[in-house]
Specification:
With 299 residues, the chain is α+β, with helices and mostly antiparallel strands. Helices cover 32% and strands 36% of the residues. The chain has six helices and 15 strands. The strands form four sheets. The chain has a five-stranded antiparallel sheet. The chain has a four-stranded antiparallel sheet with strand order 5-4-3-9, covered by helices on one side. A three-stranded antiparallel sheet has the order 6-7-8. β11 and β12 form a beta hairpin. α1 runs antiparallel to α5.
């Protein structure tokens, strides 16, 4: 607390030290919110994960090769996404063959004793050093993938072929209003939980961060302690007592650890009054303020 007025009849002290902890309060608020966000992640991550998958999903892949009988001849593989694209350059001489890879998935549905198998296919380029897929997706049209592989192999093994262009488009799911509606419904509980916790923590921080003004007035014979909130949504906390009730001034440590301190007015018949909204460091500042109060009250 700092002395901002000291006259024979009035002593006013002002304390803004609590505001130094607003950054810690923000971090604490975000930490608690993040904790509940993780708990609610099965709900809250539905929309972000769907949005990420939707935006980064491939919508088309193209392979273009040009042969000019030069060692610099290149094939360019382009994977187009809704946002951005991936471009991979492959030397023509590095391509050795193209094969169709089959991926089988077994699914067992309810009330069925046997599993049902589904086969998906994709084209794999074999190079001198490893291999690379034409697309990251698999398709259920085997004939189309075999056709792509056949065109690529024909270009690789026929030196007279100077140009190759293959395009693979993806069938996009049709999202109906009902599907989007249910997606929002399943996501709302988690989003509401995070929003509620964030609001509560933010309001708690606004309530906790206060500016304190303490006035000792010999004209009225009263001590007035006012803890003013940062926003008007919370009322100020005002405490008053007679100057005659004050018998002593003490500096007390928080839980006896000696890291944070507060100034207390010891009253004759009532409970002690803390002049600080909460314990804070800087013991020397509080000792100076306490000594000014003693001098003013002739204690």
């Amino acid at each position: 607390m700092k002395v901002i007025e000291y006259t024979p009849n009035r002593l006013i002290l002002h304390d803004r030290s609590v505001l130094q902890y607003w950054r810690i309060g923000c971090l604490y608020t975000l930490g608690v919110t993040a904790f509940f966000a993780i708990i609610a992640s099965p709900f809250t991550m539905i929309i972000p994960s769907f949005a990420w998958k939707f935006l980064t999903e491939e919508i088309m892949a193209t392979l273009t090769c040009t042969r000019t009988q030069s060692s610099q001849d290149m094939c360019q593989l382009v994977r187009v996404r809704r946002i951005g694209k991936e471009i991979i350059n492959i030397p023509v001489n590095d391509l050795q063959s193209a094969t169709v890879i089959t991926k089988t998935v077994f699914v067992k549905k309810k009330f069925q004793q046997k599993e049902t198998s589904y086969s998906y296919y994709y084209v794999l380029f074999n190079k001198k050093w490893g291999s690379i897929r034409f697309t990251l997706h698999e398709f259920n049209n085997e004939d189309e993938q075999k056709s792509h592989a056949s065109k690529i192999n024909y270009f690789i093994h026929n030196q007279n072929e100077n140009y190759l262009s293959i395009e693979q488009k993806f069938m996009q799911p049709n999202w109906t209003f009902i599907q989007v509606f249910w997606l929002m419904i399943f996501s709302l509980p988690g989003l509401a939980m995070v929003a509620f916790i964030l609001t509560i923590m933010f309001l708690a921080m606004l309530y906790a961060l206060r500016i304190t003004t303490c006035t000792f007035d010999k004209t009225t014979g009263m001590m007035t302690l006012k803890h003013q909130a940062l926003r008007k949504i919370f009322d100020s906390i005002v405490i008053q007592c007679s100057l005659e009730e004050i018998k002593d001034i003490q500096i007390k440590t928080f839980s006896g650890k000696g890291n944070s301190w507060k100034i207390e007015l010891i009253l004759e018949q009532s409970k002690a009054i803390s002049l600080n909204w909460m314990e804070t460091p800087d013991r020397e500042e509080k000792l100076i303020a306490a000594e000014c109060i003693r001098q003013f009250l002739n204690l």
